[in-house]
Fold:
Amino acid sequence: QTQPKEKDTIKIHNAPAELKVGDSHQLEYTITFTDQEQVTIGSSDESVVKVQDNRLQAVGEGEATITVQSYNNSQSFSIHVKAIPVEAIQTNQDTVSLEAGQKCAIGAKVAPDTATYKDLAYSSSDESVATVDGGGTVTAIAPGEAEIVITAHGNVTLSIPVSVTEVRPQGILTNRDVFQIEITEDDALQVQIVPTNAANKAYEIESLDPSVVLIEDGTLKPQKEGETVLRITTWNDVVKEIPVSVYHIPAESIQIDDHSQKYVYGGHIDIDAVLSLETVLTPGTCTYKEVTWTSEESSVIEIKDNVPVIRGTGKTTLTAHGPDGTSDSITVTVIDWGLRKGIAATGAGVVWIIVVTFSILYLKKRRGRKKPAK
Structure:
């Protein structure tokens, strides 16, 4: 191939003097004599400017020389690449309020998005109040005030106030969420404030109807049957309400049991006997167990201090009155068994005397008869 006698003429039409990191520039040039395919473009520092085909890519701060090289000539120019500065720091919150022990991530970034250096550094003005890690997560340590300082490239800073308060109650746990209490029984209410590290766990309990249930030192004291609600309130107005029902188990029936009673003379009771009458309530678990007695004839059996006591002979009906309107009756006859036995013995003796008397008279009469003469 015949070489040209003159050097190539290289003319660059749009050599940039300055680029910003991230910029891309299509280089245009004209060259004589030499075939375009024999032209190369190079960069003196590819950490500043990279060249691919005819495109210049600014990748870092600094100075780079770009050279367009033909077969027998070259043309160069310098490019100054500078960073896109951080103009501001943006966050998703202007202030941070936490309770001791809580954490919060500060969502911070630089602006504009095209800024060359996007790294951020975090620090706390008072680590006894709050600390911050390299990712921007704030941890509340103790009540107080502090500032989280965010620093970007170019000494761009942003301060975010942090307020740390004591741990407050967030919920109320109890040993039961519903109480059903038999009216004759007390019950205990156990309360736990959560979280357990809450600084102030003070609370109040009230019964919305004290005529149904009273609350004293954590003890539920039923007053009458009915429905009410216990309301528990913390100092920061966390509230829990617990329904309370007061009831009694009703008696279904009462039965008089006389199996221990001693009877005489055909099912009667001797006037000198002690009454042994018992009562059985069904069900045995019924709440009220009080039984009262009445007698139709107090001259036969009197009710004294709610105990049937024999006073005389005769017939009467005793009634046992149980709870919830239940009742049962028994009819008894009281006799003087000792007197009856005496009368019976006396009657037998009289009969015996009469028989003996008649026997004696009969014998005497027989003896007084004369024998007939032979």
About this structure: The first helix runs from residue 337 to 367. The radius of gyration is 58 Å. Residues 89 and 160 are 11 Å apart (CA to CA).
